[in-house]
Amino acid sequence: MSQSRAIDYENASDAVRAVYDEIKTLRKVDRVNNFWTHIAVDEKMLRRIWNNVKEVMAPGALDPLVKELIYIAVSVTNNCRYCIASHRAGAIRAGMTEEQFNELMAVVALANETNRLAIGYNIPIDPQFEQ
Q1: Is residue 34 a contact partner of residue 80, using CB atoms and an 8 Å limit?
Q2: Residue 120 to residue 6: CA distance in whole angstroms
Q3: Three-state DSSP class for residue 83
Q4: DSSP conformation letters of 27-57
Q5: pTM for the full predicted model
Q6: pLDDT of residue 1
């Protein structure tokens, strides 16, 4: 499969540049990473995803490190190398240690294994686990 094309700042529309500027300001970076420059081929999607990221990944009931750890776990399960790398860097910035990463990988591996067993055996849900 071929790679998508990136929209660099110089060739971006005003709407795309506005999102890029927000990303650079909020994240305190000089360049927008590849994820954003590649989804910028669709201005509406770029804006929608950026708005979702700002809202969901902001500090809330879960602190930023926990959110990054969850993101890594889902990315590992979905086999998204880009997202693993990006959010591992974010988790490190948020204070993740190598020990925490290793433990996270053990939990992800265990959850995937036991999920497959529960699915494969079609195990009924215990009444005490029902909401």
Answers
A1: no
A2: 41
A3: helix
A4: HT-SS--HHHHHHTTSHHHHHHHHHHHHHHS
A5: 0.90
A6: 57
